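Final report, results section. Input specification for complex C-07:
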Amino acid sequence: MTSGGIRIKAWVAMACALFCGAAWANPEPGQLNMTRGVTEWSSEPYFLNNVALGVCVVIGVLVFGAMFVAMFRFRKSRGAVAEKWSHNTMLEVVWTTIPVIILIVLAYLATGGLKTFADTTGSQMTVKVTGYQWKWRYDYVDYQGKAVEKVGFMSKLDRESDETRQLKSGMDPYAVKVDGYNTYLLNVDEPLVVPTDTKIRFVITAGDVIHSWWVPALGWKMDAIPGIVNAAWTNIKEPGVYRGQCAELCGQDHGFMPIVVKAVPKAEFEQWLAAKEQAAKQPAAPAAPAAASTAAAPATAQVAPATAPQG
Amino acid sequence: MAHAATHDHHDDHHGAPKNFFVRWCMSTNHKDIGTLYLVFSLLMFFIGGSFAMVIRAELFKPGLQLVQPYFFNEMTTMHALVMIFGAVMPAFVGLGNWMIPLMIGAPDMALPRMNNLSFWILPFAFAMLLSTLFMPGGGPAGGWTMYPPLSLQGDSVANLVFAVHLMGISSIMGAINIIATILNMRAPGMDLLKMPVFVWSWLITAFLLIAVMPVLAGAVTMLLTDKYFGTSFFNAAGGGDPVLFQHIFWFFGHPEVYIMILPAFGLVSEIIPAFSRKPIFGYKAMVFAIASIAFLSFIVWAHHMFAVGLPLGGEIFFMYATMLIAVPTGVKVFNWVSTMWGGSMTFETPMLFAVAFVILFTIGGFSGLMLALAPADFQYHDSYFVVAHFHYVLVTGAVFAIIAGAYYWLPKWTGNMYSEFWGKMHFWNSVIWVNVLFFPQHFLGLAGMPRRIPDYNVAFANFNMISSIGGFLFGASQLIFVGVIIHAVWFSKKKATDRVWEGAKGLEWTVPSPAPYHTFEVPPVIHDDELAHGHVDD
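Structure output:
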């Protein structure tokens, strides 16, 4: 944990954030901007964020620039004498109209994004997500039009993070790593495994209080509310492990309720699913080995895979 | 009026009561009650601030070092409740109490006895709220938004609800008093469109308060009956809907955030013209902008709920309505800049805080515009980006404006000049550290750090550490403020003139400093050029 090393890494990441706009899956030290994400839709919020930020920076430079000019030019100490005018209709019309035009453009861009996000039709797979204090349950409902048999599991904070996060544990959060990536509070015992290049519909609800399912790389969050079933969709383009957290205050362990989505190529997912279904049919047999055998496969994935999804 | 004047005739010649208890606990004098409000709000500012210090200390580095997560949640909840209902709102009421009668030429508030009651409710409300921290079940830990079902899991629901009821009663009475005063007690010739912008902003705010505090009262009463009487307003298992609470809460909560900023607009609209020695640019546009913002605040509540699963039409409506607020807000900012343009500016402490307000509040407005874009909000929502946004509008917005107002009128209240050097020390420390505190939180949010978490991944470590350092130093800087006030009240040797600031206009500067216990017993004669905006033409 040499601070120098960390600082250099932070600067590299920062430079990257500023200049390359790289698509990140997971938070990086010193990250300055939103992730572009890895799904068909996730570039929408990223694009809107950048456009809106640009608009704000330009307006900011103009307004604050005018203010600073005024503060230096019209100082009493420089002998400035106050002028008498106190309104100018032309100017007021202009600075009401121009913002309206800018807002119309932004509204147009945002509306398109909203419409595509609201359209959950044509999905090839359905996953039910249920929030509990303080873990997530995932149930696979259907895949390619075929009902999935009894595949579902709880997903909660991994043991290493859990031990480290205890008050005054004396353990080092920087030491919690998976494949070189620090996963403190961002790792689970069993991730949600999904296929890439598949429109996946999520139906999201909760068992006790309100939670919110948020994986920044997917580009959205959706509240999980008891008694209500919300729908959202994603279509992940790049295999990898994507991490997020519960985003709605849900009690004392709200900060310890991570989400890990492991996106794998379709063929691999089908194997994994078949193994899970098989295991569900023989409840006595241990489910883990079958799952573990597939976990080493995505060596080509851009992001290092998490620990094998063991039960 | 006539009756009151004869009845109080004896006091008129004797000024304030000598007995401490009679003067400060039984007061019906708007100036004393204003002082009580301001002192109370300063106390609450430090109590709420100490909760924030606990939060920032825990977030100083990854890993839990100081507090258990449940206590952390109590701290975030109490910090918000105390700051909103204990610090910011009473500070504005205090400023309103002190200054509105002076600015419109009234001898006192319209309902002085109710004024006493509306203040004295507050200490009891906060005693009830804060005492929950020492009770076996702990204080409220479900966030200031009190979303059920989580908020119903706590043991302090009844105390929280009754405390909120008391605060609401106090606010409503304060608002009624302000409306009655402004509409009925203006000196002859003080037309509505000659009133200072601060008075206008409070008039509009008071209507917002009366409109929405009962809504909050209804929402928390439903929480209470859900918890203790087996109703199911918000319980899905009993046919209720947890989202219903959010709609009701934010129908209160969104106007509430404007209740906390509109009087700040008014304050800044007094201070910038005074130190620019130039009338406010576009007086009518300013009043109209405040009124439009107040109207729009009622139809945008669901922008706090973009991630709750609204139908597409709802998302689009609330997005467009929210974006519209940028127009009148922009008008206000442009008008402040134009007021400065062509002026003859000096930069005493109130002006410094007012200028910082304009810049930093605008930055908070920018992030507000970004948050209004629903698809982007799917990422920002409930992240630290939101925390950064509302602290820019509430700390560098509302709180900076209150501090600016306090410095602006401190000589009028005390009769003494505060120390300009220490005022400037307070300003520069505040403005630097508040940005160190809140600016990095934008980055944390964009990188994916949720709000209200007591611990975080190491990727968020560096900005959290910077933010915490800014937090401690910003907190410490506020001690300078206390020093400046104590010095100005008891130790300053420099007497203030009647018209304390060269460019200050308005009736409050026509009375002596300190303002006598009773003012305007005979209504003043209004001269247009004496008013800040008296010569508004067309």
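Residues 17 and 23 of chain B are 5 Å apart (CA to CA). Residues 69-104 of chain B form the longest helix (36 residues). This concludes the modelling results for the funded period.
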